[in-house]
Amino acid sequence: MSAQSGLSPETIAFIVEQEQDARRAFRLLRETRTISASGTLFIAVRIPGEDKIITFNYLGLWADDPDAPQTAVIDFDGNSYWHNKPGGAARYAKLFRTHEGVQAVSHVHTPHLGAYSQAHAKLPLLYVPNRRFRFTSELPVYINRRQPEVDFILDSIGADREVPGIVEANGGATVWSWKGLRDLVNNIVLLEEGAQFQILSQALGGSQPFGPGVLEQQWKMGKLVPPDASVSDDGTIQYATAVAAE
């Protein structure tokens, strides 16, 4: 990277670190068959303390090294700081600009989230790992493409700050993280896994609502509620003290 890039040594070191994680993520998602064979996948990561994002594009079937990401850096206005084009991830700059806490986002095509997308169906989060760290009960589905996808995402976060992603009708899914690239990849894997299990369960009558005590157990494991709180089976929380409720 040349000195004319406008990127500090600290920023370049962060980019190199994230690029290594992106390489591992691409391999993990491919080897676990989380991504579909055509390989539609890109990831964008916020650069700490700057109005810039790194984008990593998966090059897919014909790449000599399929784990090597195509890396680019842009600011929130679309100005480039890297020699590669940012690809589709540039359209999420508004998400990063609007929500300072969002650290990473990915658009990805996976087989079972893709099945929900083809059905124009919201994804109920009935797989317990997808509820352990959030109160959100479903992923919304983005159908009307006359509204930009990023605006639909912003509306979805406005309605439920903990929602981790959306299903894109007739496409794949877009997933984000408030923690970073590794947490983002974990979210993708678990959402796809939950969608897979829920589809497989159709042969046995379909996914059922959570049984008694499941939400209380999961939310206490995920530290969403304190150990002395009680959670009803419909998700209503009763805190032990008024102070805890605040």
TrEMBL record:
Q: Which SUPFAM superfamilies match?
A: AraD/HMP-PK domain-like (SSF53639)
Domain Class II aldolase/adducin N-terminal span(s) in chain numbering: 43-199
Q: Provide an example Pfam family for this protein.
A: Aldolase_II
- The protein here is known as Class II aldolase/adducin family protein
Species of provenance: Sphingomonas gei
